[in-house]
Structure formats: C-alpha cells, structure tokens
Amino acid sequence: EAAPEVARVRALAAGDGADGGAVRVPVVANVSPIDGRLRFEQLVPADTTLQRIVDRLEESRIIGTRVVVEPPVYRGVTVVARLRARPRANPVRLQEDALRALYLFLDPIDGGPDGDGWPFGRPITSGELHAVIQKLRGVELVEDLRIFGADPVTGQRGPQTTRLELEPSALAFSYEHQVLVEAG
C-alpha cells in the first residue's frame, strides 16, 4: 500500500521475543534483470521507499512493538556444474540454457519452486538444482554439480556444500554460476 513499486514484503518476528515484540520487515525492490541476471546493487530499495513503509507502519503498529524495515539478507550462491550433452545437441546453446535456468531459479523476485520469488529462509539444495538442469532439453546427464556460498560484494566463495542454509529473513541470489558442457 505505501510502496506499490516493491516486489515483495514480509513481516517476521525479530530476535528471540525477549525484546518486547520486535518485527523485521524485509523489503525486496522490484527490478528487471539485465540479460536475464539481477545485479546485487539493484536489489536494495531506495531509502525513500523504505521510509514510506516505515511511516505507514508507524500509523498502525501496536505500542511497544519495534519495527525494523530494511532490505533482506541476500545469500549469494554460485553453482558450478558439468553436463554431458545429448548427441546432436548444441553445447553452446545448452550452456546458455543451463545458466539461464539457474539464474531464474535462484532469483529472489521471480525464482523458486513456484516461480514467485525464492522463499524467505528456504535452503538451497544440490538435489533441487540438479533437477532444474537435468530437465533441460539436450541434457544427457548432469555429471557434477557443486554449490558454494558467495559474497556478492567481495566475490569471495565459501566452501563447497550440498545444502546452503538461509536465515529466516534471507533470500537466495545468483552469483557467477559456471557451467561446462561436454559434447555427447
């Protein structure tokens, strides 16, 4: 209501409840991908947008409740995959399709299993990502798939994992996926 230009907003209990009822409100900016990819800096809502939301919530919040309106925590994720193409499949096209599928699936606005944005706090699993790539036309086999947490500000990658946990107020954000396609 206060900021129709945002893509998503969610209210979450903050802390352990000992602080008297704090509520955290992560706000996701509504942006369009460039070449199918979102840039990290695009996802931060304008200060004026956040302030309009704060002002609106101040009108209706319960006295004693502290409301924190801010962008969500974005957990960068890098997927490194090796695929074997079916005979007669174009490896270059298949690489492009696989990258597009990963960037779309791990999108905080239009991604996730239901296509309405990565769910807040939902872990990222290698099995789900494997399925996203395996179903692409032209993929014979996903030979290898690795997940790494990534800091989208510094570019540093964390250790390899099969499951990347997210905090309740966090969203997945694609960062520099790598796909190698071997001819079939």
Q: Percentage of helical residues?
A: 10-25%
Q: Count the strands?
A: 11
Tally the helices.
Answer: 3
Q: Alpha-carbon distance between the termini?
A: 53 Å
| Rounded average pLDDT | 90
Largest sheet: 5 strands, mixed
Unreliable spans:
none
Detailed description of the structure:
By secondary structure, the protein is of the alpha/beta class. The longest helix is centred in the middle third of the chain and has 15 residues, at 91-105. The chain is built from three helices and eleven strands. The termini are far apart.
Write the layout of secondary structure elements.
Layout: E1 6-9, E2 12-13, E3 23-29, H1 47-60, E4 67-70, E5 73-85, H2 91-105, E6 124-125, H3 126-134, E7 139-150, E8 157-161, E9 163-164, E10 170-174, E11 178-182
Parallel strand pairs: 3-4, 5-10, 5-11
Antiparallel strand pairs: 1-3, 2-3, 5-7, 6-9, 7-8
